[in-house]
Design brief:
- The structure is a single chain.
- This protein folds into two domains: 155 residues, Rossmann fold, CATH 3.40.50; 278 residues, pyruvate-formate lyase- activating enzyme, CATH 3.80.30.20.
- 35% of the residues lie in helices and 18% in strands.
- The protein is built from 16 helices and 17 strands.
- It has a seven-stranded mixed beta sheet with strand order 4-1-5-6-7-8-9, sandwiched between helices. A six-stranded parallel beta sheet has the order 10-13-14-15-16-17.
- Helix 12 packs parallel to helix 14.
- The two termini are 40 Å apart.
- The structure holds iron/sulfur cluster.
Length: 466
Amino acid sequence: MKKVLLLNLPSDVPCYRILHRAKVGEPNYIWPLVDLICLSGILAEAGFELEHKDFQVDRGASVEKFLAGRRYDAIVAAYNPFDEAADFRQLEEVKRLCPDTDIFLLANHKDRLETGHMEAVLRANPFIKALVYDYAFNNLPELMLNPGTQRLSNVFRLQDGALLGRKEELPQDLRLPRPRHEIFRDPAYFHYDSTGGLMTAAMGSFGCKMQCPFCWGPQLYSRVVTRDPANLADEMAAMEAAGMEEVYFHDYSFGYHRQKLLDFCALVQARGIKLRWFCSSRFDLMSPETIAAMAGAGCRCIEFGLESGNYEVRRRYGKRFSDEQVRLILRECKRHGIHASVFIILGLPEESLEDMKRSVRFVRDAGFDYVSLNILWVEPLTALAGEIKTTDGSVSPLESMKKLNFAHPTVTAGEVQALYRSSMRSIYFSPSFILNQLRNIRSWKRLREITRLALKLALNRTGTGN
Ligand code: SF4
């Protein structure tokens, strides 16, 4: 039986090498790379023996020591779009240490959105055997078993100097082979709303059809594909059998397909699956009915992007829901014991400093369980990057969401950062927030995270990591 290592490389700063949500910086959550999890099902179904190593959680470990005495037929690694060169250097070293092992790379968003990127990567790094374009739908096993195959689906390699491979869309009603969550067991994984136990990650759907101008996400897939509810419920049962207690759904927006969401929740309840789960969604996708169903199926926290507390501004950023809709969904979450987390962006060019303060007051007074404040960082490959001239190079990706990287028409970068710090303190040091958090402490993990955040705020450091 061929043996494959699924690898998350070390890095100097924590980084999340995920196709659709890559980021760098210190997070207040960490879970296994969902790309590797989905791929594990495809490889295991084809008969490969799998191991997983995550150097992002085992931060002191040495790659060289780990590989010494181990033998793999193949290694599949994700790579960081914000520091590709560093990851290629590490992978080249892996190849030097394991010359007989084939190295495969999982695509990052640049491979999908930048013309010629994938080919350039393969040309510049000939030790990489092939690049997996879609981690959830590909025929990588065929290439691993038959290196000469010409039939490549969502896998690309160079042959005689030309790029070989074919892109294929995810089918509607996608059914994933059962991911092998058992190899991703690690007590270090957690979500900021975790209450303990082992945690894993999953995908219920792929793609996004919204067009928020600061986000490149919708360009990754031509349509939203939601998994077959029974297939997803089977995976939940398998997670539970693997000893997992919590799962984070990494979908851009959980619950796009209302009926599939309700069917999934009904199946989870009917099968008596007791996992606690967390997800991101949108206020306009949720309703009293879906929230009740999700709570019954184990949902414990939903993250919402609001971007601005000012309706006219958030409309422009793809969030066309009224204050009343926001309050309704928040009330329903509270009624059903689901924590609600909200994301706000400071520094939107349409907002004055006073508008930004109003935005912060809106989310603080609404009573969200968590508020994640971010500072607008105009990312390449987004619609916003075509509209706003950035101060190139002055803000590194390491500081993304912590510092403006463009000249705001009315507010200085320093004013936005000062507002960020004072807002964080006013939200997280308010008596009602502290009381709420104390009521919710149900595990040492949670206590540790709250203590860390409090220390961060007290030391005046920016960045929530959400
Ligand atoms: S809802 Fe908006 S921010 Fe979220 S993934 Fe879609 S486009 Fe991006």
